[in-house]
Structures are given as structure tokens and as C-alpha cells.
Amino acid sequence: MTSLQGAAGTGHARMRMDIRLARTFGLILLILVGCWLPALSFMLADVFVILTHTQQRAFAFCSTLCLVNSAVNPLLYALRCRELRVALLQLLQRLCVIGRCKKTTQDLPPGIHFTEESSCTAITEHEIPANGTMQLHSVSEMVNN
To answer: Which residues cross the membrane (predicted)?
Structure first.
């Protein structure tokens, strides 16, 4: 009986993965259409009518969107991967703690002295809390803090 339950659990996991892949594909396709449709529309309109200067400038911008699509695709694939997302969050947490400035002398660890000349002392990598007191759960949390 346990082998049937294991097979059912594997099927459920497979279905979840298929749904996740379908969502990723849908997102990629939506961005592809959103980036290419305006430029293709201008190209089609250019066949039938002469574009004004303003329309030509808009077409140039829309052509840039096509290039942006190529730059965004690898980012989307990377951010949809849980392992890469977790690694990115850990890196951002570490950079945030290292780059954070200490505003008062009370915040300074022993051995580092505050002078009037510097209004801010940077935290070094060795001062990062070992217990990981700063926990972020999303990239937007990092940006908003």
C-alpha cells in the first residue's frame, strides 16, 4: 500500500512542477508579446501609411523594447528558480549588512572609535551577526528597507 501512496505523491509533485512550468512559460510568452507587439504593429502600419516623426520615435522606443525582452528572459528564468532566488536573497542580505552605516556611537562595536570627521562608519564583513538576526523573505523587502 505504501508504494501506491509513494507513486501518488510523486504524481502530485510532478503535476505541481508541470503547473509551475506552465506559469513560467505563460509569463515568458506574455512578456514576449508585450515587448514585440508594439514594434510589429508599427512595422505593419508603416507598410500602409507613412509614419510621422513622432510615430517614428515611438517605433524606435518600441524597437528598444524588443532588445529589453532578450535581457529580461534570463532574469525571469533565474528568479523562477527557487535555489537561485534564495542565493540572491542571501547575497542581498549580506551586502545590506556589510554596507549599512552606523549612525551613533552606541551602535559601534568595541574597538571602533567614532570621530567628528566621519558621520558614518561602515560595518565590515567580520561584524556581520553570526546568528543572522536580519532575515528577509523577499527581494522587495530588501529594496523597501
So the answer is: 24-52, 58-79
